[in-house]
Amino acid sequence: MACQNPDFAQFIQKSLNRHVKGDWGDVDAEDKQTNDQALEQGSRLLSACNDERLPQHGVATIWIITEADRSSTTILFPDEY
Predict the structure, then answer these.
(1) What span, in angstroms and rounded, lies between the C-alpha atoms of 80 and 60?
(2) What is the CA radius of gyration of the chain?
């Protein structure tokens, strides 16, 4: 889908850049605090990003999960979790 939809590709890249910088996106205050603690404790990180422009293409929210050992980061749609 990303190759066929430049808006979606840009959304993914922007969201991943936010995640890398410690901007957890559209999560609530409790999840933000959990992520901030996870940075110090070496736990899993979770970001959620929404783009209201994309529902017309069937995509509005993605989750970005970085494993506790920081070996991998996965981008998922919520229904894939």
Answers:
(1) 14
(2) 13
Dihedrals phi, psi of 33, to nearest 5 degrees? -65, -40
The one-letter code for the residue type at 4 is Q
The SS3 call for residue 1 is coil
Nearest Cα residue to 60 out of 20, 23, 13, 11: 11
pTM for the full model?
0.84
Within 8 A by CB and 6+ apart from 80, the residues are none
Q: How many of the other CB atoms lie within 10 Å of CB of 12?
A: 19
- Please give the Cα distance from 54 to 69 (Å, whole number): 32
Q: For residue 2, what pLDDT is reported?
A: 43
Task: Please report, for the chain, the start and end positions of each structural domain, with discontinuous segments joined by +.
Answer: 6-80
